[in-house]
Amino acid sequence: MLHLKVSGLRNDEATVWVALYNAENKFLSFEDIFRAKKIKPLSGQYFVEMGFDDLPEGEYALTAFQDENENGKLDTNFWGIPVEKYGFYRAYRPIFSAPKFEDCAFYFDNTEDVQIEIILK
């Protein structure tokens, strides 16, 4: 099982969205997410925890964001820079462009439990 903790939330009210991708050519596409989850933090907690079970062995990439205005999408400014807190696996922080699949990828061996944390910035 893949256990995920998303921390660094701005508040304990807005939903956290997580996307798990299994293919480089689908990475960051909202239409081609392999698995997705959304969860609200518990009152007073600035993190959420969730799991993905029954994952086949393979390479994956993870992204997350906190939907502060609850509109179901990651809001960006005029230049396309996110205005809501977001994060990627490996704490990858793009500077001039979106990350590539390999920047946020990890190999999952379904024979053991894996724990990952994404810290939103």
What's the SSE blueprint?
Elements: E1 2-7, E2 15-21, E3 35-39, E4 47-52, E5 58-67, E6 86-88, E7 105-108, E8 114-119
Parallel strand pairs: 1-8
Antiparallel strand pairs: 1-4, 2-3, 2-5, 5-6, 5-7
Q: Would you kindly provide a written description of the structure presented here, covering whatever features stand out?
A:
The protein is an all-beta fold and 121 residues long. The chain has one domain (2-119). The protein is 0% helix and 39% strand. The protein contains no helices and eight strands. The strands form two sheets. Strands 2, 3, 5, 6 and 7 form a five-stranded antiparallel sheet that branches. Strands 4-1-8 form a three-stranded mixed sheet, with no helix packed on it.
What level of helicity do the residues show?
A: under 10%
The string of secondary-structure elements, in order, is EEEEEEEE
Tally of individual helices: 0
* Structural class assignment: mainly beta
Enumerate the spans where pLDDT stays under 50 for 5 or more consecutive residues: none
The tally of domains stands at 1
Sheet of most strands? 5 strands, antiparallel
Key traits:
8 strands, mainly beta, three-stranded mixed sheet, globular, 0% helix, 121 residues
